[in-house]
C-alpha cells in the first residue's frame, strides 16, 4: 500500500511540474524579452511588473472561437495539439531532480533512449497539424518540421550517446551517480551539440523555419485558434523545460553542486535548468532566423561531425583511464 501511495505521489508531483513550470517559462520569456527589446506592454499588465500578463494571455485564448477549417481532416486536426504536448509529460517522468529514489517519477534502465524517442513523438503533432489543416502554408510548415527533425535528431542522439558511453549506462540516475566534474570540459562539445539540436527540434529561434511568419504565416499552426493554439504554445514551453532538464542531467551534473556541495540536491537541478531556460530566451532575442539551407548545413556539416568527434574522444578517454 505504501509503495502504491509513493508512486501516486510522485506522479502527482510530476503532473504539477508539468502544469506549472512551462507557464513560469512563458511568463519569464515575456519579461526577459520586454527588458531586452524595450517592450513596455508586458511590464504593465496587472500592475506590479506586469504580473498578470500570463493571466491576460490565458483569458484571450479562452475567449477566441475554436475554428476548424471546412476541408480539414477534423479528427487529426483536433488531436494534433495533444500529440504535441503530452509526450513532454512522459519525458518529465524519467528526469531525476534529486539523489533520492522519490526524486524521479519513474527510473528506467533505458531512460536516455526513452526520453529522446518520446521527444521525437512530440514533433509529430506539428506534422499532423500541417497535414490536417487543408492549407498549403500549413503543409509547407509541416514538411519543414519533418526535414528539421531528420536533420537534428541524429546529432542530438549521438551527443547523448557520448555521455552514456562515459557513464557506462543509459539510465539517467545512473549517469548522475557516475558523473565527475572533470567531465565538463571533456563533454563540452557534446553538450553544445545536444542543446543546439534540441532547440532546432523545438523549432525555437533561430531555428523557427517551420513557423516563419514572414514566409508561411505561422506554418503548421496557421489554422489554429483559441485554446488549441494555446496548447501548441504550452507544448513549446514544456519542451524548453524538458530540454533544459535533460541537458542539466546529462552534461551539468544534475543535483551535484560545485566543490562537493551536493546537499542542496534538487535546488541545483532547478537552478541549472533555469539558467539554461534563460539562455533559450536570450538566443531568441539575439539571433535572426536561419535560412532553410543554412539550417540543414549547420546540422549535416557541423553538428553531426562534432558529435562523432565527441564519441571518438569519449572512446579514447575511456580506453586511457580504464
UniProtKB/TrEMBL annotation:
<feature type="transmembrane region" description="Helical">
    <location>
        <begin position="229"/>
        <end position="253"/>
    </location>
</feature>
<keyword id="KW-0812">Transmembrane</keyword>
<comment type="function">
    <text>NDH-1 shuttles electrons from NADH, via FMN and iron-sulfur (Fe-S) centers, to quinones in the respiratory chain. The immediate electron acceptor for the enzyme in this species is believed to be ubiquinone. Couples the redox reaction to proton translocation (for every two electrons transferred, four hydrogen ions are translocated across the cytoplasmic membrane), and thus conserves the redox energy in a proton gradient. This subunit may bind ubiquinone.</text>
</comment>
<feature type="transmembrane region" description="Helical">
    <location>
        <begin position="110"/>
        <end position="133"/>
    </location>
</feature>
<dbReference type="GO" id="GO:0016655">
    <property type="term" value="F:oxidoreductase activity, acting on NAD(P)H, quinone or similar compound as acceptor"/>
</dbReference>
<feature type="transmembrane region" description="Helical">
    <location>
        <begin position="154"/>
        <end position="176"/>
    </location>
</feature>
<keyword id="KW-0874">Quinone</keyword>
<keyword id="KW-1003">Cell membrane</keyword>
<feature type="transmembrane region" description="Helical">
    <location>
        <begin position="182"/>
        <end position="200"/>
    </location>
</feature>
<comment type="subunit">
    <text>NDH-1 is composed of 14 different subunits. Subunits NuoA, H, J, K, L, M, N constitute the membrane sector of the complex.</text>
</comment>
<dbReference type="GO" id="GO:0009060">
    <property type="term" value="P:aerobic respiration"/>
</dbReference>
<feature type="transmembrane region" description="Helical">
    <location>
        <begin position="298"/>
        <end position="321"/>
    </location>
</feature>
<protein>
    <recommendedName>
        <fullName>NADH-quinone oxidoreductase subunit H</fullName>
        <ecNumber>7.1.1.-</ecNumber>
    </recommendedName>
</protein>
<feature type="transmembrane region" description="Helical">
    <location>
        <begin position="7"/>
        <end position="26"/>
    </location>
</feature>
<dbReference type="Pfam" id="PF00146">
    <property type="entry name" value="NADHdh"/>
</dbReference>
<keyword id="KW-0472">Membrane</keyword>
<keyword id="KW-0830">Ubiquinone</keyword>
<keyword id="KW-1278">Translocase</keyword>
<comment type="similarity">
    <text>Belongs to the complex I subunit 1 family.</text>
</comment>
<dbReference type="GO" id="GO:0003954">
    <property type="term" value="F:NADH dehydrogenase activity"/>
</dbReference>
<dbReference type="GO" id="GO:0005886">
    <property type="term" value="C:plasma membrane"/>
</dbReference>
<feature type="transmembrane region" description="Helical">
    <location>
        <begin position="79"/>
        <end position="98"/>
    </location>
</feature>
<keyword id="KW-0520">NAD</keyword>
<feature type="transmembrane region" description="Helical">
    <location>
        <begin position="265"/>
        <end position="286"/>
    </location>
</feature>
<keyword id="KW-1133">Transmembrane helix</keyword>
<dbReference type="GO" id="GO:0048038">
    <property type="term" value="F:quinone binding"/>
</dbReference>
<dbReference type="InterPro" id="IPR001694">
    <property type="entry name" value="NADH_UbQ_OxRdtase_su1/FPO"/>
</dbReference>
Amino acid at each position: 500500500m505504501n509503495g502504491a501511495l509513493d508512486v501516486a505521489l510522485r506522479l502527482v508531483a510530476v503532473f504539477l511540474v508539468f502544469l506549472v513550470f512551462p507557464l513560469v517559462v512563458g511568463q519569464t520569456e515575456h519579461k526577459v524579452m520586454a527588458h531586452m527589446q524595450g517592450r513596455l506592454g508586458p511590464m504593465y499588465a496587472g500592475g506590479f511588473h506586469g504580473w498578470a500578463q500570463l493571466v491576460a494571455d490565458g483569458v484571450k485564448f479562452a475567449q477566441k472561437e475554436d475554428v476548424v477549417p471546412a476541408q480539414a481532416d477534423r479528427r487529426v486536426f483536433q488531436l494534433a495539439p495533444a500529440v504535441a504536448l503530452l509526450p513532454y509529460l512522459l519525458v518529465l517522468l524519467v528526469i531525476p531532480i534529486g539523489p533520492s529514489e522519490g526524486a524521479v517519477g519513474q527510473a528506467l534502465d533505458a531512460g536516455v533512449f526513452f526520453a529522446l524517442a518520446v521527444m521525437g513523438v512530440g514533433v509529430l503533432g506539428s506534422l499532423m497539424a500541417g497535414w490536417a489543416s487543408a492549407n498549403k502554408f500549413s503543409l509547407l510548415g509541416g514538411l519543414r518540421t519533418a526535414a528539421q527533425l531528420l536533420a537534428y535528431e541524429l546529432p542530438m542522439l549521438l551527443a547523448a550517446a557520448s555521455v552514456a558511453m562515459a557513464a557506462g549506462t543509459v539510465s539517467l540516475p545512473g549517469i548522475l551517480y557516475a558523473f565527475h566534474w572533470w567531465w565538463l570540459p571533456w563533454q563540452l562539445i557534446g553538450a553544445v551539440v545536444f542543446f543546439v539540436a534540441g532547440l532546432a527540434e523545438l523549432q525555437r529561434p533561430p531555428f523557427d523555419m517551420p513557423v516563419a511568419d514572414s514566409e508561411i504565416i505561422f506554418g503548421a499552426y496557421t489554422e489554429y485558434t483559441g485554446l488549441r493554439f494555446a496548447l501548441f504554445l504550452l507544448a513549446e514551453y514544456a519542451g524548453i523545460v524538458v530540454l533544459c532538464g535533460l541537458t542539466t542531467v546529462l552534461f551539468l551534473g544534475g543535483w551535484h553542486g560545485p566543490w562537493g556541495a551536493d546537499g542542496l540536491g534538487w535546488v541545483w537541478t532547478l537552478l541549472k535548468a533555469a539558467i539554461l531556460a534563460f539562455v533559450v530566451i536570450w538566443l531568441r532575442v539575439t539571433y535572426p532566423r536561419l535560412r532553410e539551407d543554412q539550417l540543414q548545413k549547420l546540422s549535416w556539416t557541423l553538428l553531426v561531425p562534432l558529435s562523432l568527434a565527441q564519441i571518438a574522444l569519449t572512446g579514447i578517454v575511456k580506453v586511457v583511464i580504464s
